[in-house]
Amino acid sequence: MPHPTPLPTQPGQESVWAYPRPPRLERTPRRLQVWLGGELIADTARSTQQAFRVLETSHPPGYYLPPDAFLPGVISRAGGSSMCEFKGAASYWTLSAAGQVAERAAWSYERPTSAFAGMAGYVALYAGRVDECQVAGEVVTPQPGEFYGGWITADIVGPFKGVPGSVGW
Predict the structure, then answer these.
(1) What is the model's pLDDT at position 14?
(2) pTM (predicted TM-score)
(3) How far is CA 139 from CA 33, 39, 43, 143, 149, in A?
(4) Which H/E stretch holds residue 132?
(5) How do beta strands 141-142 and 100-108 pair?
(6) Average pLDDT, the chain
(7) What is the 3-state secondary structure (H, E, C) of 28-83?
(8) Distance CA 106, CA 31 (A)
(9) Cβ 89 vs Cβ 35: under 8 Å
(10) Residues 75, 66: contact at Cβ < 8 Å?
C-alpha cells in the first residue's frame, strides 16, 4: 500500500507525517496519568523527572514515564523481549492494581542505544491494556493494532500506522 495522504492540521496540531525517521526522543512536561483497576497507578506529577515522548513518522507519540511515577508494587517483570532497530532491546512488564492484572502491558529499554540513553529504565504502556491513560487531562485513544503503543490525542493528526494495510508505511 502506498503512503497515505497526511490529514491537514489545525492550529496547535502536529502531523505524525512531520515526525522524523529515525525517531526523535524529547522530554515532555505534560502530565501523564494511568489507571488500572480503577486506581491511579502512575502520575508524572509524583515524579522528580519529566517524561519522554518518542516521535516517529506515521506513529502517534510513544510516552515513557519515569519509574518513580508509578505506585510501588504495580510493576513486575514479564517474560520475553523484543528488538527495536533504533532503541535496542525492550523488556516487558506486567501491571497489577486493585485485583486487575494487565500482562505485558508495559515495556522499557534498560540499556537503550546512545540516541535514546536518556530514557533508560523509563516505562511505556499500551493504552489499550489499562483502564485509561491521559495526557494533560485528555483521555488518549490507543494507537491501532496490537504491536504499537502510541497515544493519540486531539493535538496530533494521522493517518496512523497500525490500521489495516499500513504494514508497508
Answers:
(1) 97
(2) 0.96
(3) 9, 15, 14, 13, 15
(4) strand 132-135
(5) unpaired
(6) 96
(7) ECCCEEEEECCEEEEEHHHCCCCEEEEEECCEEEEEEECHHHECCCCEEEEEEEEE
(8) 18
(9) no
(10) no
Domains of the chain: 14-157 (2.170.150.40)
Residue pLDDT, tens place only, 36-74: 999 999 999 999 999 999 999 999 999 999 999 999 999
DSSP state of 115: G
Supply φ then ψ for residue 59, to 5 degrees: -110, 140
Number of other residues whose CB lies within 10 A of the CB of residue 110: 11
- Using the predicted structure, report yes or no on whether residue 167 has a pLDDT greater than 70: yes
pLDDT over 90 at 169, yes or no: no
CA dihedral 56, 33, 135, 104 (to 10 degrees): 30
pLDDT category of residue 1 using cuts at 50, 70 and 90: low
Q: Residue 107: what are its φ and ψ, rounded to 5°?
A: -150, 165
